[in-house]
Write a structure and sequence with these properties.
Chain A has one domain. By secondary structure, chain A is mainly alpha-helical. With 160 residues, chain B is of the alpha+beta class. Chain B folds into 2 domains: 33 residues; 99 residues, Alpha-Beta Plaits (2-Layer Sandwich), CATH 3.30.70.3270. Chain B has a 3-stranded antiparallel sheet with strand order 3-4-6, with no helix packed on it. Chain B has a two-stranded antiparallel sheet with strand order 1-5. In chain B, strands 2-7 form a two-stranded parallel sheet. The longest helix of chain B is centred in the N-terminal third of the chain and has 29 residues. Chain C has a single domain, classed as Cytochrome-c3 Hydrogenase, chain B (Orthogonal Bundle), CATH 1.10.645.10. In chain C, strands 1-2-3 form a 3-stranded antiparallel sheet. In chain C, strands 6-7-8 form a 3-stranded antiparallel sheet. Chain C has a two-stranded antiparallel sheet with strand order 4-5. In chain C, helix 4 runs antiparallel to helix 5 and helix 4 runs antiparallel to helix 14. Classes of the chains: A mainly alpha (363), B alpha+beta (160), C alpha+beta (372). Chains in contact: A-B, A-C, B-C.
Chain lengths: 363, 160, 372
C-alpha cells in the first residue's frame, strides 16, 4: 500500500534537520529542534483547548435543545477566547492555610503530564516528535502522572471538598489504568510491537477494529469506558462531582490555574481519543474497503493528518455524547464496575485474542 | 452456571439501557430544529407577550391628557407592600366648597409584587397593568414613578 | 445556633458544611454532615437563611393580601397554596363558589403539579450528574408557564385565586393551549423514562437507597409523593376532596419500597395521573361566573379555620384564627417541605454523600417553603 508522497512529512522534517545541521553543531541542532517542537506543541495545545471547549459547548447545547454560545463572534466562535482572557485576568485566590508551593505546583504537573503524552503521538506519517519503541507503554505511563496533580491539588487546597474529590480520583484512575492498559495489550498481541508508528503501519491493509473483529470491538468498548474514566469526565466525573462536591479537587482554584486544569481535561480527552484512533482505527491510515480500487484511491487523496483528526474527533464526540447523556456513578459503583466487570472482561478478552491470534482467525 | 448467565445478561441489559438513553440525546443532536432557545433581545420585534402579562402599573391617559383616577386611595389600601402612595390636594370648586383631588399617584416599581390587587380594587378602572417588562435602571430612584402625567385632569363625569 | 463540640480526635469522624451555598441544596439550606470517610453518620439541617416572617406578615394583611404571600412559600406549587387560603376564607364566609371556578382551579392545580414535577425531574437528573435532563425538564415546565402567563398574567407567582373565585376568566384559547401541551407532554414523558428511569446507572444509584419506612413517614409527618412511596396513603385529594376532585377518577399512586427509586417513580406516575385528570375536565368546564363578588373588606366570623390541599410536595395546610377583624388574628401554614426535611436525618444515616444528594432530590425540597 503506497502512501502518497506529498502527505509524507518525514521529507519535510528531514529537510529541516539537514538545513539546521548544515548551519550549526550537532548539540545546538538538537536544542533548536527541541525548542521548535516545544513551540509547535504549545501552539497546538492552545488551539486544541479553544476548539475542544467550543465544540463541547456546542455539542452539549444542541443535545440539550439550546443554541449554546452565540454572541461573541459568528456563532459564538470567539467565546472560548473571551473566556480564556477573562480567566487570565482573574485574581488567583489561595485559601488560608493552603500549602502554597504545592497549590501552585499542581496545575503545572497536570499540564506537563499531558504535554509528555502528546510527544509520541503520530499525527501523520513522519509527523511525530519522538518515536519510541515502547511508545504505547510510555503513553500509559505518563498519562497516569496526571493523577498526582489531582491528589496534590486536593491536598494542598486545605478544603474538605477538594480532598474528597482528590482521593476519589486517585482510587478511580489507579483502577481504570488497569483495564485501559489491558485493552491496549489486546491489540499489541496482534501488532507484536509497542512502537506507535509500527502499530499504524501494521494497519495498512485494514484497521485492527475490523481485523481483530469480536475481540477488538470488546477491547475498544472497554478502552473507551476506561479512557473516559481516566480523563475524569462524566459519567465518571467523581473527582469533580459538581452536585456533591461543588467542584471537587479544583474547588479552590481560580483564574489561570483553574484554566490549566480545564485545559488539561480537554487535552487528556484528546490524548485518549488519539490513542484509541491510533490503536484501533489505524491512526492516519485512510479508509480502504476491500478491492474497490477507485474508492481506495480517492481515500488516499485525503491527507493523512485529516484522517487522523477525523478519527480523533469522532471518538471525542462519542465521549461528549456519553457525558451529556448519563448520570454520574457513585464511587463504590465505579470501583465495582472496574473490578467486577471491566477487569475480568478484559482479562478474558486478552485470552480470547491470544486464542484468535494463535489459530490465525483474525484477518 | 446460572450466576454466569446472570452476570452476562446484567452486562447486556445495562449496555442496552445506556444505548437507549444515548438514542434520545442522539436524536436531539441530529434534529437541531428542536432547539427552543429564544435569542432575546434580538427577537424583540417578534416577541409575543400575552395581553394579561403583569409587567408594570400604568395609568392610561386620553389624548387631551385626562385620566380616570379620582384619588380615592382604594389601590393604596389594597396594596400589600405599600408601593402605592396617593398624594391628594384640596382645591376650591366654583361653588366655594373644598374638594379632594389627586395631586400625585406615586408608584414604587421596586417594591411591587405584581399581584394585581390594586387594579381589582380600583372603582374607576384608572390603573391597569401594562406588558412592559424591561425595568432595569442604573438608579433605584428611577423606579419610583408618578403615574399621572403633569398637568393632567380627571376625566369629566368619572367622579359622580 | 450553638454546635456541640464533639471530640473527633478519637474517632475518624469529621464535619462538612453542605451549604448554605451548595449546588445541590437548591437554595440556602445548610446541612451539617458528620462523616466517616464518605459515610454519613449524622445530618443536621440548619434552616432559616430565607426566613421572611410570612406568617407574621399575614397578621398585618387583609385576606386578599395573604394570597400573594403564599405564592412565595412553595413557589413551584403556588396555585395550590393560593387555593388553600381561598378555600379557608370561603369556608369562613360560608360561601359556595360556582362550579366553573372549581373546575378551573382543579385544572390549574394539576398543570401546576405537572410543572413542578417536570422541574423536579430535571433537577433530579442534574443532581445525579445528567445535566441534559435539566434542560428537557425545563422545556416542558416552560410550556406550562406560558399557559399560566396567558391565563393570569404571571409565570411563577400567579396569584390567580381570590376569595370567591378567580382573578380572571380563562382566555378563549385556554382549552386549545392545554390540549396542545398534553399532546406534546404525552410524547415526551416516555422519553423521561428512557433517559433516566430505565438507565442502569440511574436505577443503581436510586434503588434500595435512602429507605424510609411507613412508620417513620407517619411519625415524621412526611406527606406527598415522598410518603406515598413508603406506602402511606395521604393524598388530600382522595381523603378530603376539595374543588372538583370528587368529580374525577384518578388513582392514588402508592409504592411500598420506600427507597429513592420509589419516590422518583411515584412522581413520574403522578404526572400521568395529572394528565388524566386534566383530560377528564378540560372539555367539561361548566359555563357560569368565574367570580362571586365579596365585600371589599373581608371579615371572617370569630373562629378557627383549617384547609389543607395536596400541593406538589405534600399536604399544604392553612390554619386561620379570626377575631372578626379585617386581618386574621393568627395564620399558620403547614408546609410539606418542613416535615419532609425532618425525616432527612433518619433516611440519610449510613449513606454516602452521593446518596444524600439523591435523597434530597427525591424529597423534593423547596427551601422558601421550609423557612417561610
Amino acid at each position: 500500500m503506497k502512501i502518497l508522497s506529498i502527505y509524507d512529512f518525514s521529507n519535510l522534517t528531514q529537510a529541516i534537520h539537514t538545513w539546521l545541521s548544515g548551519k550549526m553543531s550537532v548539540v545546538s541542532t538538537q536544542v533548536v529542534e527541541m525548542i521548535l517542537v516545544g513551540t509547535v506543541f504549545l501552539l497546538f495545545f492552545a488551539v486544541l483547548g479553544l476548539v475542544l471547549v467550543y465544540a463541547e459547548r456546542k455539542v452539549c447545547a444542541i443535545i440539550q435543545v439550546r443554541l449554546g454560545p452565540m454572541r461573541v463572534g459568528k456563532w459564538g466562535t470567539a467565546q472560548t477566547l473571551a473566556d480564556f482572557i477573562k480567566l487570565v485576568f482573574k485574581e488567583p485566590l489561595i485559601t488560608r492555610d493552603a500549602d502554597k508551593f504545592l497549590f501552585n505546583l499542581a496545575p503545572f504537573i497536570i499540564i506537563i503530564a499531558s504535554f509528555m503524552a502528546v510527544a509520541v503521538m503520530p499525527f501523520a506519517k513522519g509527523l511525530q516528535a519522538m518515536d519510541f519503541d515502547i511508545g504505547l507503554f510510555y503513553i500509559s505511563a505518563v498519562s497516569s502522572i496526571g493523577v498526582t496533580s489531582i491528589l496534590v491539588a486536593g491536598w494542598a487546597s486545605n478544603s474538605k471538598y477538594s480532598l474528597i474529590g482528590a482521593i476519589r480520583s486517585g482510587a478511580q484512575i489507579l483502577s481504570y489504568e488497569l483495564s485501559a492498559g489491558l485493552s491496549l495489550l489486546t491489540i499489541v498481541i496482534l501488532t507484536g510491537s509497542l512502537q506507535l508508528s509500527e502499530i499504524v503501519e501494521s494497519q495498512a491493509d485494514g484497521w485492527w477494529i475490523w481485523k481483530g473483529h469480536v475481540s477488538s470491538i470488546i477491547a475498544f468498548v472497554i478502552f473507551i469506558i476506561a479512557g473516559t474514566a481516566e480523563t475524569n469526565r462524566g459519567p465518571f466525573d467523581m473527582a469533580e462531582a459538581e452536585s456533591e462536591l461543588t467542584a471537587g479537587f479544583h474547588t479552590e482554584y481560580s483564574g489561570i490555574k483553574f484554566a490549566f486544569f480545564f485545559l488539561a481535561e480537554y487535552v487528556n480527552m484528546f490524548i485518549i481519543a488519539a490513542i484509541g484512533a491510533t490503536v484501533f482505527f489505524g491512526g492516519w491510515m485512510p479508509l480502504h474497503v476491500g478491492n474497490f480500487e477507485a474508492f481506495n484511491n480517492i481515500m488516499d487523496y485525503i491527507p493523512s493528518v485529516v484522517w487522523f483528526f477525523m478519527k480523533v474527533s469522532a471518538i471525542i464526540f462519542l465521549m461528549m455524547w456519553f457525558r451529556w447523556t448519563f448520570p454520574r456513578l457513585r464511587i463504590d459503583q465505579l470501583l465495582t464496575l472496574e473490578w467486577k466487570y471491566l477487569l475480568p472482561l478484559s482479562l478474558m478478552n486478552i485470552l480470547l485474542m491470544a486464542f484468535l491470534s494463535l489459530m490465525g482467525w483474525h484477518f | 452456571m446460572n450466576e454466569v448467565t446472570e452476570y452476562f445478561s446484567d452486562i447486556f441489559k445495562g449496555v442496552r439501557s445506556l444505548l437507549k438513553g444515548m438514542s434520545v440525546t442522539g436524536y436531539y443532536f441530529l434534529h437541531p430544529k428542536e432547539i427552543i432557545t429564544q435569542q432575546y433581545p434580538e427577537n424583540r420585534d417578534v416577541l409575543k407577550v400575552p395581553e394579561r402579562f403583569r409587567g408594570e402599573l400604568v395609568m392610561p391617559h386620553t389624548a387631551d391628557n385626562q385620566h380616570r383616577c379620582t384619588g380615592c386611595s382604594a389601590c393604596q389600601l389594597a396594596c400589600p407592600n405599600g408601593s402605592i402612595i396617593i398624594v391628594s390636594d384640596r382645591v376650591e370648586t366654583p361653588e366655594g366648597k373644598k374638594k379632594k383631588v389627586i395631586d400625585k399617584h406615586v408608584y414604587n416599581l421596586a417594591m411591587c409584587t405584581f399581584c394585581n390587587l390594586c387594579v381589582r380594587a380600583c372603582p374607576t378602572d384608572a390603573i391597569v397593568m401594562s406588558n412592559d417588562f424591561e425595568h432595569a435602571t442604573y438608579d433605584r430612584g428611577e423606579l419610583i414613578k408618578i403615574l399621572n402625567q403633569p398637568g393632567s385632569k380627571v376625566l369629566e363625569g368619572i367622579e359622580e | 445556633m450553638k454546635i456541640e463540640a464533639i471530640d473527633t480526635s478519637e474517632t475518624k469522624e469529621y464535619f462538612i458544611n453542605m451549604g448554605p451555598q451548595h449546588p445541590s441544596t437548591h437554595g440556602v439550606l445548610r446541612l451539617l454532615l458528620t462523616l466517616e470517610g464518605e459515610i454519613i453518620k449524622n445530618v443536621e439541617p440548619h434552616i432559616g437563611y430565607v426566613h421572611r416572617a410570612i406568617e407574621k406578615m399575614c397578621e398585618k394583611s387583609s385576606f386578599q393580601q395573604i394570597i400573594h404571600l403564599t405564592d412565595r412559600l412553595d413557589y413551584l406549587s403556588c396555585h395550590m397554596n393560593n387555593e388553600a387560603v381561598c378555600l379557608a376564607v370561603e369556608q369562613g364566609l360560608e360561601m359556595d363558589v360556582p362550579e366553573r371556578v372549581k373546575v378551573i382551579r382543579t385544572i390549574i392545580d394539576e398543570l401546576n403539579r405537572i410543572s413542578s414535577h417536570t422541574l423536579w425531574w430535571g433537577v433530579m437528573g442534574m443532581d445525579m450528574g445528567a445535566i441534559t435532563s435539566f434542560l428537557y425538564g425545563f422545556r416542558e415546565h416552560e410550556m406550562i408557564t406560558e399557559i399560566f402567563e396567558e391565563t393570569c398574567g404571571a409565570r411563577l407567582t400567579m396569584s390567580y385565586n381570590v376569595p370567591g373565585g378567580l382573578m380572571f376568566d380563562i382566555p378563549p384559547n385556554f382549552q386549545k393551549m392545554v390540549k396542545d401541551f398534553l399532546f406534546h407532554f404525552k410524547k415526551k414523558l416516555p422519553e423521561y423514562d428512557t433517559l433516566l428511569s430505565n438507565n442502569i446507572i440511574f436505577t443503581e444509584r436510586t434503588k434500595g437507597i435512602g429507605y424510609l419506612s411507613k412508620e417513620n413517614a407517619i411519625a415524621f409527618g412526611v406527606t406527598g409523593p415522598s410518603a406515598r412511596a413508603s406506602g402511606f396513603a395521604c393524598d388530600v385529594r382522595k381523603l378530603k376532596p376539595y374543588s372538583a376532585y370528587h368529580k374525577v377518577n384518578f388513582k392514588e399512586i402508592i409504592f411500598t419500597e420506600g427507597d429513592c427509586f420509589a419516590r422518583y417513580k411515584a412522581r413520574i406516575d403522578e404526572m400521568w395521573e395529572s394528565v388524566s385528570i386534566i383530560e377528564q375536565l378540560i372539555d367539561n368546564i361548566p359555563e357560569g361566573d368565574y367570580f362571586v363578588k365579596t365585600k371589599a373588606v373581608i371579615k371572617l366570623p370569630v373562629g378557627e379555620y383549617y384547609q389543607s390541599v395536596e400541593s406538589a410536595r405534600g399536604e399544604f395546610g392553612v390554619y386561620i384564627v379570626s377575631d372578626n377583624k379585617k386581618n386574621p388574628y393568627r395564620v399558620k401554614f403547614r408546609s410539606p417541605g418542613f416535615a419532609n426535611l425532618s425525616a432527612l436525618n433518619k433516611i440519610a444515616q449510613g449513606c454516602k454523600i452521593a446518596d444524600l444528594v439523591a435523597i434530597m432530590s427525591t424529597l423534593d425540597l423547596v427551601i422558601p417553603d421550609i423557612d417561610r
